[in-house]
Amino acid sequence: QVQLVESGGGLVQAGGSLRLSCAASGRTFNNYNLGWFRQAPDKEREFIAAIGWNGATTNYADSVKGRFTISRDNAKNTVYLQMNSLKPEDTAVYYCAAGIAPGLTRDKANYWGQGTQVTVSS
Known about the structure:
Helix content: under 10%
Strand content: over 45%
Number of strands: 11
Distance between the termini: 40 Å
Oligomer: single chain
Shape: globular
Order of helices and strands: EEEEEEEEEEE
Largest sheet: 7 strands, mixed
């Protein structure tokens, strides 16, 4: 069992930065691939970024490549999402997810956090 709690969301102006954190509980944290997804109003939840269990592999959606960076600290049971050059279209609820299967996608996620709101003003 893994429980995920996101933090770090908020209101930021376009061009600004935010860092999201996701703290996980559970002894098997290191076994999981981790990722971030987001959901804007009236839209489906979409993949943003994922990182392998040892941090060696990362994957990003085209919409955030070069602006967002995912990382993890297994000693702290935490995964991060550094978001730079934010745009109004990045406004959404951001969710942390964990999954055992490689290549984390929405369907492969076993656990979800409750989400944190990110609002980017123009």
